[in-house]
Amino acid sequence: MTKSVYDSFEVDQSLLASGVVLDVVTPEGDRIGTIRCLPADGDLNPRYRAAAARALEEIQRTGVVEDTAMTARIYAESVFIDWSGPGWRDRDGNPLPYSTDNCARVMAELPTLFRQLQREARRWTNWRRAYAEGIAGK
Questions:
Q1: I need a surface site. Which of 58, 110, 122, 137 has the fewest CB within 10 A?
Q2: Are the CB atoms for 44 and 14 separated by under 8 Å?
Q3: What is the per-residue DSSP string for 83-107?
């Protein structure tokens, strides 16, 4: 039987509320931890829409655009929820607890990591109902 449009495109409301856990993997394929996030989509995540609107107001007010740092702050405030795992350490090897400030700083300082996580946060299929059912079935 052919899947319905709802089977294929409906997002899971519980995942929109709790977020999805994404693996953080090095370029060599080593898993260093996880990060839990909400979608980077204004239609699916009102917090993201509000944070982006605040940033736009700041740009209009000041005329200054700090691309990576500003975008990292938006994601830290509205998309990324927390992280865990042994790889979340600072340059000196000390544990790096999740906070909005730590997250914004790490993403701004590591734009390659940030771009990787942005791609996943924009991938709406991570919040599909079928995705959630697949997780539950494992």
A1: 137
A2: no
A3: EESTT-B-TTS-B----HHHHHHHH
Placement of tokens 């059912």 in the chain: 133
* Residue-wise pLDDT tens digits, 88-103: 999 999 999 999 999 9
For residue 36, count CB atoms less than 10 angstroms from its CB and return exposed for 0-12, middle for 13-18, buried for 19 or more.
middle
Please check whether residue 105 is in contact with residue 96, taking contact to mean a CB–CB distance below 8 angstroms.
no
DSSP of 50-67, one letter per residue? HHHHHHHHHHHHH----H
Which helix (H) or strand (E) covers residue 32, if one does? Answer: strand 31-37
Give the CB-side neighbour count of residue 20, counting CA atoms within 13 A.
28
Angstrom distance (rounded) from CA 91 to CA 95? 10
Question: Tens digit of pLDDT for each residue in 9-51?
Answer: 889 999 999 999 999 999 999 999 999 999 999 899 999 999 9
Which has the closest alpha carbon to 37: 24, 22, 49, 26? 22
